[in-house]
Amino acid sequence: PSNTPLVCTARLVYLQDLTIPDNSVVAPGSTLDKRWSVQNSGTCDWDQNYSLRLIQGESMGVEEMPLYPARSGTQAQIQMDLTAPATPGWYNSTWQAIDPDGTPFGDPLTIIIFVQQP
């Protein structure tokens, strides 16, 4: 038997928005319960060492969060509690999965909202 450690491949496939579809109209400062359905299509099990990090756009209160644990080959639901900006206008935020070494992987996850005038 070989003593070479088994190297896994991290992959995330976006499946669908479960809440707050793109181009949703929201109230200024409102709390947003954003959920995505994703597939862990890689060979790594996501554990506490995997995260989701903001890579572009408005943070809406979240810069980074743990990536929910998911075994290789399974579907998972990612949930974020966000806060809509107070200023009316269009906002687009994009998050990326990050492996334990800090390397981004998989499909980016986005939210696109329009904050309406109060």
Approximately how much helix is present in the residues?
under 10%
By DSSP (H or I, 4+ residues per run), the number of helices equals 0
Mean pLDDT: 94
Cross-sheet strand order for the largest sheet: 2-8-7-4-5
Instruction: Report the sheet-strand fraction.
Output: over 45%
Largest sheet: 5 strands, mixed
Order of helices and strands: EEEEEEEE
Short description:
It contains no helices and eight strands. The chain has strands at residues 13-17, 24-26, 31-39, 51-57, 64-66, 75-83, 89-98, 104-115.
Task: Give a verbal description of the structure.
- The chain is an all-beta fold and 118 residues long.
- It is 0% helix and 49% strand.
- A five-stranded mixed sheet has the order 2-8-7-4-5, with no helix packed on it. A three-stranded antiparallel sheet has the order 1-3-6, with no helix packed on it.
What tags apply to this protein structure?
118 residues; mainly beta; 5-stranded mixed β-sheet
